[in-house]
Amino acid sequence: MSLHSELDNVKIEHDCSQCIYNYSADCSCDRFVPKDMATFLDNVVNTLVKTAEPGKGKKMRMPEYASDNLYTRLMTSVKRHYVMIINDAISEIRKGRKAYLYCLEELRDVISYEPSVMVRYVPDFLAYELWLEK
Questions:
Q1: Can you give the three-state secondary structure of 24-86, one letter per residue?
Q2: CA-CA to 130 of 20 to 30 Å: which in 33, 50, 68, 109?
Q3: pLDDT tens track, the chain, 134 positions
Q4: 2: which residues sit within 8 A by CB, 6+ positions away?
């Protein structure tokens, strides 16, 4: 998934004037790369912290669906896997360890349960490193 798509998914404003490719201001491309990635991602994380809706409870919960429909069962399985990723990250950072996530949606969901999480983008792994300050 492109950074442009990820930013759209978490509703983060961005435009072509921030892009290294210098397309016209009315473009809508999938090749969005910020001129200063570190500063841009710091601003994205700050925006996510301010806008993430607080989670209900201590961890993400999965609503149960009862259906014989194959599509519903498959989507439930995908959603269950996503919830496991989020809860694993929350558990790891609460234990004082580091967790790694690979997209902004996951990051937003962890922030909704732990708004004081520290985040660093690790370009070598294309991942976000998360931890809680002691």
A1: CCCCCCCCCCECCHHHHHHHHHHHHHHHCCCCCCCCCCCCCCCCCCHHHHHHHHHHHHHHHHH
A2: 33
A3: 677 777 877 888 777 777 777 666 555 566 777 788 888 888 888 888 888 888 888 888 876 666 666 656 666 677 888 899 999 999 999 999 999 999 999 999 999 999 999 999 888 888 899 999 87
A4: 30, 31, 32
Closest CA to 123 of 3, 4, 22: 3
pTM for the model stands at 0.75
Cα-to-chain-centroid distance, residue 100: 11
List, in sequence order, every residue forming a beta bridge with 38; answer none if it has no partner. Answer: none
Alpha carbons 58 and 91: distance in angstroms, whole number: 10
Amino acid (1-letter code) at residue 59: K
Q: How many helices (H) and strands (E) does the chain have?
A: 4, 3
